[in-house]
Amino acid sequence: MKLLVTGGCGFIGSDFIRWILDARPDLQVTNLDSLTYAGNLENLAECEANPRYRFVRGSVADADAVDAAVREAEGIVHFAAESHVDRSLYGPVDFARTNVEGTVVLLEAARRHRLRRFVLVSTDEVYGSLAEEGTFTESSPLAPSSAYSATKAAGDLMALAYRRTFGLDVVITRGSNTYGPHQYPEKFIPLFITNALEDRPCPLYGDGRNVRDWLYVRDHTRGIWAAFEGGRSGEVYNLGGGNERRNVDVARAVLRAVGRPESLIQHVADRPGHDRRYALDTRKARAELGWAPDIPFERGLSDTVAWYRDHAEWVRRVKSGDYRTYYERHYGIGNRLEPGARSLEPEIQDEKPTSST
Ligand code: TYD
Asked: pLDDT per residue over 41-91, tens digit each?
């Protein structure tokens, strides 16, 4: 089968390609990626010589590039997205272009060329924020908070509209916060690991008690493929790690794993519209796809720390250029990490960590 993967040079997409080329020798993979700041050809260096792998540079919002790539494919796994909530504060239009328009351009090409299946990789953030109790099921209402999650929700709805209106075979996965090797260090876990390795402060937003459900990248990859192979058309599948943790507890675990003091944690102003808690009910994916996450959080985290420690050159290259500009803007002068910047609720009480399942 000929599979088109979009956004394959990013974090989850590149894990997916590395895994699937190995796991499925019958597959040919074309990777359509525009190489934005978060896309990195180094992530797929080991695949370059594989005759079953092909890289095409292009944007999902470019109808001609998409048509040429989709025309030759039988199925699509669509990862390409602007994915960082904090960046969506500064450039919401880029998010709409890639996550909404790009998804529609791709859906349209898939319809025209009658593709067998279209898997859209989405996020638990489309459901909005939870209080202390409860979990989101696939039928929870969509109530996104940020320009990131709102544009992902719009993409989901367009995909479902293509299924209902045009009969396109669409499956959506909604993954929880994903972590692991190769993640761009603007996200919480790789930011804290790489800052700690350099003895730099680790900026914890607000009271640090926001809760995320952490999923190891390889578990996420396997879930996406399980949805491609076994998901029912028009259905949504939640892929959650079952590892709910408060940010402050993750921060402490990272510093322990890196071997640095907790005093590197610096409490900084909160993210506007910061969702309090995400947690997913994953019974549907378990029952229908036979999928379950496998990697315990502590093991995933120590493997991830080891990877960043062993890939100092990767980190150095990624943390130059665009990264520095963004970091300064978001955390630097006049902002969160400026000496004397206002901190919120610096006192974090020790509580029992939120339960994990
Ligand atoms: P992030 O990795 O950006 O993922 P998401 O916003 O999609 O959940 O953030 C995870 C959590 O970590 C979130 O509650 C925000 C928090 N966070 C910080 O406290 N400091 C930071 O510098 C970043 C990037 C995130």
From this structure: 999 999 999 999 999 999 999 999 999 999 999 999 999 999 999 999 999
Among residues 86, 101, 108, 125, which one is catalytic? 125
- What whole-number distance in Å separates Cα of residue 178 and Cα of residue 20? 18
Give catalytic status of residue 22 as yes or no: no
124 is catalytic: yes
Say what the pTM is: 0.94
Give percent helix, percent strand, percent coil of the chain, each to the nearest 5: 45, 15, 40
Per residue in 32-43, pLDDT (tens digit) is 999 999 999 999
20 belongs to a structural domain? yes
Number of domains in the chain: 1
Name the DSSP letter for residue 95.
H
Quote the domain boundaries for residue 155. 2-180+212-239
Specify the CATH number for the domain of residue 25: 3.40.50.720
Pocket test for ligand 1, best of 212, 280, 326, 344 (most atoms within 8 A of CB): 212
**205 an active-site residue?**
no
